[in-house]
């Protein structure tokens, strides 16, 4: 069955002002920034973490629960929502906000990373990417204009540009060709946006360039020259060492505008978020807190623990002793372990809520630390405690 797009977009409220990002404070010892991003469906205080709602839903969590946890913005997946339920159905409900009943901002990715994951059944050309989709194997096409049109139909507050994500490792020649194609696609996305921009939707460019500093700089400078509402650093979390991930941000962030939001895509572990904040990044998304929760891993101030381990069978303490974490307050570790062993859905929900609370609260603490000009100390203290305790927790 062919996938057909139409040029009718849901109404999106006008963005509050022409300069959506406001820099409020910065750390004297690092590149950490405290900012505020004005979007059509609300304000996002940065640094901020975006829970991932791949299918238009953050797994196991009600939208009202997300708001209660302090989620300011969530991520929707362009590729998956395009295939199912399809843009015609989502458009019928006035866009993804109306369809999912999420009232706050939404960022949609471009579909580029999902196309990257389909490397064995895709063909990349100048026009775009033809691939066999994962649902029924049907031949499907997404190019820069199609990606923008899908995201317009979804009615997201922030739409990401269509890009090619190079694998790790890759040859320098491949990275150069990939970046050149991504930049040409970025230009086409900008032209589409200028001709068709739905009211209130912002557009973020994506810096690529793999592990080469000069390519990262070239990409950042080229995107700024084209001109976008914000900028992301892509091509990370694709198997590269952690230090390469940090270097990617170091090679890109200095060449991005001070007055624009910066987004590190697909990252990551708690200490990685803080390292990226120290390098001037403002926004993050990752499936880890929800995915690991479903497999029994809980993030706590005293490290990550695997609640299914035998050591917690009779543990009467709460997940976070002495700390008021509303989602799981009053439940013992022994009880939560029992729920996992018994296959009870409540186990998945409790850890999902707890992990999201942990990530969102970590960002709140980071914002407070930047405002108080003590972010470097906060990062060092948190990282030492979290990583040391995580290692200790793995020892029965």
Description of the structure:
The protein has 396 residues and is α/β, with parallel strands linked by helices. It is 41% helix and 17% strand. A 9-stranded parallel β-sheet has the order 4-15-14-13-12-11-7-6-5. A 3-stranded antiparallel β-sheet has the order 1-2-3. A 3-stranded antiparallel β-sheet has the order 8-9-10. Helix 9 (242-252) links the parallel strand 13 and strand 14 (261-264). It is globular.
What is the alpha-carbon Rg in Å?
Answer: 21 Å
User: Major sheet: order of its strands?
Assistant: 4-15-14-13-12-11-7-6-5
**Would you tell me the structural class of the helices and strands?**
alpha/beta
Name the overall outline: globular
Q: Alpha-carbon distance between the termini? A: 53 Å
Mean residue pLDDT: 92
- Low-pLDDT runs: 1-17
Helix content: 40-55%
Please work out how many helical segments DSSP would assign: 14
Strand content: 15-25%
What's the count of strands? 17
> Biggest sheet, in brief?
9 strands, parallel
Task: Outline the secondary-structure elements.
Elements: E1 21-26, E2 33-39, E3 42-46, E4 48-50, E5 52-53, H1 63-69, E6 74-76, H2 78-83, H3 87-92, H4 96-100, E7 106-108, H5 112-117, E8 122-124, E9 129-132, E10 139-142, H6 144-154, E11 158-160, H7 172-196, E12 202-207, H8 213-226, E13 230-233, H9 242-252, E14 261-264, H10 270-278, E15 283-285, H11 288-294, E16 297-300, E17 303-306, H12 333-342, H13 345-371, H14 375-393
Parallel strand pairs: 4-15, 5-6, 6-7, 7-11, 11-12, 12-13, 13-14, 14-15
Antiparallel strand pairs: 1-2, 2-3, 8-9, 9-10, 16-17
Helix pairs in contact: 7-8, 8-9, 10-14, 11-13, 12-13, 13-14
């Amino acid at each position: 069955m062919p996938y057909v797009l139409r040029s009718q977009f849901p109404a999106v409220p006008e963005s509050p002002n022409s300069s959506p990002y406001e820099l409020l404070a910065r750390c004297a010892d690092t590149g950490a920034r405290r900012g505020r991003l004005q979007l059509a469906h609300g304000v996002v205080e940065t640094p901020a973490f975006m829970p991932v709602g791949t299918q238009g839903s953050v797994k196991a969590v009600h939208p009202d629960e997300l708001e209660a946890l302090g989620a300011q913005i969530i991520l929707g997946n362009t590729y998956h929502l395009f295939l199912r339920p399809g843009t015609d159905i989502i458009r019928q409900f006035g866009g993804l906000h109306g369809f999912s009943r999420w009232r706050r901002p939404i960022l949609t990715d471009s579909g580029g990373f999902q196309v990257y994951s389909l490397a064995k059944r895709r063909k990349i050309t100048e026009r775009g990417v033809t691939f066999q989709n994962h649902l029924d194997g049907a031949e499907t096409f997404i190019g820069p204009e199609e990606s923008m049109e899908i995201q317009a139909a979804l009615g997201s507050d922030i739409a990401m540009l269509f890009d090619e994500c190079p694998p790790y490792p890759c040859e320098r020649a491949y990275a150069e060709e990939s970046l050149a194609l991504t930049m040409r696609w970025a230009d086409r996305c900008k032209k589409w946006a200028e001709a068709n921009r739905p009211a209130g939707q912002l557009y973020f460019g994506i810096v690529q360039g793999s592990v080469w500093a000069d390519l990262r700089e070239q990409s950042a400078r080229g995107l700024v020259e084209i001109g976008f509402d914000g900028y992301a650093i892509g091509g990370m979390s694709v198997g590269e060492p952690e230090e390469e991930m940090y270097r990617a941000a170091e090679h890109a962030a200095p060449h991005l505008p001070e007055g624009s939001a910066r987004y590190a895509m697909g990252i990551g572990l708690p200490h990685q978020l803080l390292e990226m904040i120290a390098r001037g990044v403002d926004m993050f998304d990752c499936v880890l807190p929800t995915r690991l929760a479903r497999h029994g891993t809980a993030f706590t101030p005293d490290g990550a623990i695997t609640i299914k381990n035998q050591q917690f069978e009779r543990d009467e303490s709460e997940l976070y002793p002495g700390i008021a974490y509303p989602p799981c307050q009053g439940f013992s570790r022994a009880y939560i372990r029992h729920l996992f062993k018994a296959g009870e859905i409540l186990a998945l929900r409790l850890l999902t809520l707890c992990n999201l609370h942990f990530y969102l609260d970590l960002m709140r603490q980071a914002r407070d630390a930047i405002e108080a000009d003590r972010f470097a100390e906060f990062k060092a203290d948190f990282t030492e405690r979290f990583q040391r305790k995580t290692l200790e927790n793995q020892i029965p």
